[in-house]
Amino acid sequence: MEGSEFEEHGAQMLHYVTSYMDSVRSRRALPDVQPGFMQELIPSRAPETPDKWEDVFKDIERVIMPGVTHWQSPNFFAYFPTAQSYPSMLADMLCNAIGCIGFTWASCPSCTELEVVMMDWLGQLLHLPDSFLFCKPGKGGGVIQGTASEATLMCLLSARTLFFKKEREKNPDVTMGQLVDRLVAYCSDQAHSSVERAGLIGAVRMRKLETDEKGSLRGPTLKAAILEDKAKGLLPFFVCATSGTTTSCAFDNLKELGPVCQEHGVWMHVDAAYAGSAFICPEFRPLIDGVEHAMSFNFNPHKWLKIMFDCSALWVQNTDYLRYAFDVDPLYLKHENQGVMPDFRHWQIPLGRRFRSLKIWFVLRLYGQRKLQEAIRKDVRLAHEFETMVRSDDRFEIAADVILGLVCFRLKGENELSERLLKLLNADGRIHLVPSKMKGNFFLRLAICGPDTQSSDVRRAWDVIRELTDVVLKSDAKS
Amino acid sequence: MEGSEFEEHGAQMLHYVTSYMDSVRSRRALPDVQPGFMQELIPSRAPETPDKWEDVFKDIERVIMPGVTHWQSPNFFAYFPTAQSYPSMLADMLCNAIGCIGFTWASCPSCTELEVVMMDWLGQLLHLPDSFLFCKPGKGGGVIQGTASEATLMCLLSARTLFFKKEREKNPDVTMGQLVDRLVAYCSDQAHSSVERAGLIGAVRMRKLETDEKGSLRGPTLKAAILEDKAKGLLPFFVCATSGTTTSCAFDNLKELGPVCQEHGVWMHVDAAYAGSAFICPEFRPLIDGVEHAMSFNFNPHKWLKIMFDCSALWVQNTDYLRYAFDVDPLYLKHENQGVMPDFRHWQIPLGRRFRSLKIWFVLRLYGQRKLQEAIRKDVRLAHEFETMVRSDDRFEIAADVILGLVCFRLKGENELSERLLKLLNADGRIHLVPSKMKGNFFLRLAICGPDTQSSDVRRAWDVIRELTDVVLKSDAKS
């Protein structure tokens, strides 16, 4: 494909993108296909000679779209939002043109340097403590990870290395196996599945601690667990606190957990994957008061800040701990300016990395702080609007405090009623939600997701929910 | 930004992309900037209100380009190539429009289903054994990983889980710590740094074994190591064989290693990150004869197959082993069709994943097998052309067999001469190379990288090298 053809096909694709976004509301949010549907639609082998662009382009609607779950639709209320925006897309086009792999400073200085500045821009927007920023005194700084799962894992592994070094100083013969059998990490019983997974990968025990009635992990619970484990000869070393759980958007109490971690020399990591974006609004920032006690803090701009996947922002108070987590340094990756600016390959699980800070730069500049704040506030307002509708119908109850853009609700009574409602909703497909469960209570999660979700969309969703609730309760009355 | 503005700015960006590619040859391959250069070029905080598009667009040349290492330049010969192509860029635009996260089948059926078919297309192009394909009987299949580092780690962790289960069957009280202290993995002393890192993350011993004079790990060496370790009571469980090392593009002998691994019940993983793309050409396919003994095989289409980063293709003979590596299954990720098609979140380290199979689909269709083969053959031809020039100058010697698109060469005599030559070359900046070392021999690596590198570029590179060699040898003669 020549440059001129690329510009022509690219213009066609740009138009397809805007048409898709303009019409996504009218597509079924959850597709109506069966597993294996695609195998009949495309050949079983790659072609020998080139297919025509027109045929490939046509196949987007014929082959791909019938099986797409429309995450960017205003009728998609499942999981948490995944960011999408035109400025982010433009930045990705540039990222692909440059096509660099920024594993060291020398491999593309701009890639590393823009990331350093952007992580400070983001950190300042969130009013993170100075100790997390490159531009302030100390050893703090941030780095883009692919996902929150990787950020949690990276911090758990860094903490493991730190403890291994400490134990080695006391006893030079201690093995990694002896250590991992004694290490113990903690999270709440509401923490994301990736936290448990980080424990499995790191080969360490991950203890899930009970939360209070609001789904929040409290200081006394953690303290009791640490003392209990220390008495058994175990080594408490890591706590993953969650600010905004996936289940119900609950917040662990950092102000209580932080001092407990500091007293016992435990690494506190804060996973604010979804909620983090909201902290650019001063009114939500108190939700992470106590973050100054954390060794590391992570959130996903790629969820709720218009910066597209993958872009998970991780800050640490001491970047040496990340850098030394695995000290592997082959000749072909050495360069003359080592040690002056970060070589981010040491700060992450993979070696390769794209020029992802471009999309932070484009988005923060082309929206500006205020418009990003407005977008967050709009979604929170819509969530409360939906909450009010739910509360006004006495067949329903709210299952968790509505704090940001997530509403957890259920039909009063047995779980089975809400389970049936969810099944009907997803079979219907006009809107899409996923369920969760807390303290035995099954509920539906409605998260405001699409970039253009409006009050009318939320009201329409509520109409669909009520319509299908009638069906559930009618059949229940009959049986 | 409205849709109409996006189309307008997008067209501007498309044109910037083609202009960049058309003129990249004339830019200095390695930028002439010092660490910290960017901090003076941009504000230290994000703006309150939106910046103008025109200003952002202008800043690409003012702020970004001065510090870019031009990986897509025909004068860039460092590391290994990183793929770039217009069809791949078009696919990424579509991927961003859909903006889905395909962690389960239900979260976007098309995302999972296209990946299943594309991994079979790719596997067939490489003539992988049927046992690796979804479309053939058995439990084989493939999945897109972010990087080869993650693929190696994922397989090492899967093997660790498998061995833990086996050991638990023999002794239900065995702990993970007791196991990791006995587990031992192997790679060659030429393996990529990410293999050593996978061992560190997995908390297992990674033994580097000596290679033969060509940098190839041989069967008898592995066998001796396994027997020695077994005699010590250790548990050999994993071998990472390399097909095309980063150092010199050497090939471990899979035909010898495979049977040793099978005899001792060891998981053989093949890392063909760079070289893998070449196996779409039948003449290079014999380089991985013996791959049928491997439990897993990985290569990076995002290096040499015009499919852009990130896209690392991993196949396994038994997908259950990946799936059960970490069995974590929260309610909010469950869906009705579980188990029929893969839920790829179980097959990788992160949870989230983009719709990356789109770019495989676009590239394989818009080039077709033959054009992709031609591109590989062109690069290999250029490497041999460069080899011939090096051999014709008796100041130089070739440091390793030229098998694919990498030429390792050095000035005859002390390492220091080649070290000085490399320093001069990178200070000059017209072309960019990185060094490596094998068996004490320091050498320069010239990898054919840019998507449009021609014979004239390679000849020009050779002119630059000879020019600066004159400088090195003149100053050497004086001193």
Automatic annotation (TrEMBL), chains A, B:
It is an enzyme of class 4 (lyase). Keywords: Catecholamine biosynthesis, Decarboxylase, Lyase, Pyridoxal phosphate. Transmembrane segments: none annotated. The keyword Nucleotide-binding does not apply. InterPro entries: Aromatic_deC, PyrdxlP-dep_de-COase, PyrdxlP-dep_Trfase, PyrdxlP-dep_Trfase_major, PyrdxlP-dep_Trfase_small. GO terms for molecular function: aromatic-L-amino-acid decarboxylase activity. One of its GO terms (biological process) is catecholamine biosynthetic process. SUPFAM superfamilies: PLP-dependent transferases. Pfam families: Pyridoxal_deC. It comes from the Eukaryota. The modification N6-(pyridoxal phosphate)lysine is found at K303. Its cofactor is pyridoxal 5'-phosphate. The keyword Lyase applies. Its EC number is 4.1.1.28. Homodimer. Belongs to the group II decarboxylase family. This is Aromatic-L-amino-acid decarboxylase. The lineage of its organism: Eukaryota, Metazoa, Spiralia, Lophotrochozoa, Mollusca.
